[in-house]
Write a structure and sequence with these properties.
Helix 4 (118-126) runs parallel beside helix 6. The protein is globular. It is of the alpha/beta class. 28% of the residues lie in helices and 26% in strands. Helix 9 links the parallel strand 9 (214-217) and strand 10. The longest helix is centred in the first third of the chain and has 17 residues, at 5-21.
C-alpha cells in the first residue's frame, strides 16, 4: 500500500504526539532520571583531588564534608540505580543544605542503555565531585562497564577530581571488585567453595592509581566479611590477575579519606589494610580454602595510613591464615578482627 504524502505527514505527527505524551512509550525499558538541587547552570571551578572510601551506613557526615570541600563550590553529582524519586531528591536537598555548592544532582540509572546517552555523559563530565551511592554493585558493573559512562568516570579520575563511594559504591572503586552478579556471598560459603558460582569477581573497571592491585569491601566487621575477602584475594592470586593483591576493608559508619598523594585518615571506626603475595596452598572448586601469610594493618578512628607506601605509623599489625576453611590469626591470642 502506498500512502499519500499528506497521510504520511499526519501519521508522523500523530507518532510525535504520542511520544511527547509518554517519552518511554516506544522504549523497552525505563530511561535514566536526573534530579538537581541548586543552580541549573554549570559553573567552572578547580576542584581538589581526594578519595572517600565509605563502608556504608548512615553516619558518614565527615566523609561527605570531605567530598563537598573538594568540589570547591562546584557541582556534586551522585550516581545510583533504581531508587525512589523522592529519596533521590531528599538526599540532594540534605547535601545542598550543608555544603556551599553550585548544585547537587543525582542520576538514577535504569538500564545499560542509559549509559550510551550523550546528555547523561555530559552531566558526568561537568561534575566537580562524583559520589557512587550504595545499593547493588552488580547494577553498576552491568550498567557501566565498557560503556561511555565508564570512560567518563575514568576521565574524571584522570583529571584529579574527587570521587567517593559508599557500600556498593565503594565495592567498585578498586582495580578488582566483588561484582555480586548472581547474589551476595557470606564468609562460610565462600571459604567452603572459593569457586562457587556466587563468587563473581570483576576487574579493569575504574582506574584509580592508588587502588591498583586492590580490592575493597564494606560493612566489614558488622557483616563478618573477613572470610569472603580472603577468598577474593586468594582467587585473584590463583587466577593470575596479579602477583600481589591488596585489600581495603571498611567497617559500617567508617570511612578512609585519602589525599591525592596517598595519605589517608580513618574516621568513624576501624578500617583494615591487607596484603598477600604468596599464592594459596589450596584454592579450588568445592574445596576448603587454604592460604597463609596475609599481612593485616588495622587502623581505628583518628589513625592514619598511607596507600602509596602501604604502611601506618599507628594501629595494629598481625597476620592471618586460612586452614581447612577456618580463619586463624598470628599471634594466636589475637582476634581475627
Amino acid at each position: 500500500m502506498i500512502l499519500s504524502s499528506r497521510t504520511a505527514v499526519y501519521i508522523f505527527l500523530f507518532v510525535v504526539f504520542l511520544a511527547a505524551l509518554s517519552p518511554n512509550i516506544f522504549a523497552d525499558e525505563a530511561k535514566w532520571k536526573y534530579f538537581r538541587e541548586g543552580n541549573p547552570a554549570d559553573i567552572s571551578v578547580q576542584p581538589r583531588g581526594g578519595i572517600a572510601l565509605m563502608g556504608g551506613g548512615s553516619k558518614q557526615d565527615e566523609a561527605f564534608k570531605f567530598l563537598c570541600e573538594r568540589a570547591n563550590g562546584g557541582d556534586f553529582l551522585i550516581l545510583r540505580a533504581n531508587t525512589e524519586d523522592d529519596y533521590a531528591q531528599k538526599v540532594n536537598k540534605e547535601i545542598k543544605a550543608v555544603c556551599p555548592l553550585n548544585s547537587v544532582g543525582t542520576i538514577v540509572f535504569a538500564s545499560r542503555e542509559d549509559s550510551d546517552d550523550p546528555k547523561l555523559v555530559q552531566i558526568i563530565n561537568q561534575a566537580e565531585t562524583i559520589f557512587l551511592a550504595g545499593g547493588d554493585q552488580s547494577n553498576y558493573v552491568r550498567f557501566w562497564q565498557d560503556t561511555p559512562v565508564e570512560e567518563a568516570l575514568n576521565r574524571h579520575i584522570a583529571e584529579g577530581k574527587p570521587i567517593g563511594g559508599s557500600s556498593a559504591g565503594l565495592a567498585i572503586l578498586g582495580e578488582f571488585s566483588f561484582a555480586s552478579i548472581i547474589d551476595t556471598i557470606h564468609s562460610p560459603d565462600a571459604l567452603a567453595d572459593p569457586y562457587g558460582n556466587k563468587v563473581t569477581l570483576s576487574r579493569d573497571f575504574l582506574r584509580i592509581p592508588l587502588l591498583a592491585d586492590t580490592i575493597t569491601d564494606t560493612h566489614f566487621v558488622k557483616r563478618d566479611r573477613l572470610g569472603r575477602l580472603l577468598v577474593f584475594m586468594a582467587r585473584i592470586l590463583q587466577d593470575g590477575w596479579t602477583d600481589r593483591v591488596r585489600a581495603i576493608a571498611v567497617d559500617e559508619d567508617a570511612a578512609v579519606l585519602v589525599e591525592p598523594e596517598g595519605a589517608a585518615k580513618i574516621v568513624g571506626g576501624p578500617a583494615y589494610f591487607l596484603t598477600v603475595s604468596q599464592r594459596p596452598e589450596r584454592c579450588s572448586r568445592k574445596t576448603l580454602l587454604e592460604m597463609r601469610n596475609v599481612q593485616v594493618h588495622k587502623a581505628v578512628a583518628g589513625q592514619t595510613f598511607n596507600l602509596k607506601t602501604w604502611n601506618g605509623k599507628d594501629g595494629d599489625n598481625y597476620y592471618l591464615s586460612v586452614v581447612d576453611g577456618k580463619v586463624q590469626s598470628a599471634p594466636a591470642n589475637h582476634g581475627i578482627y
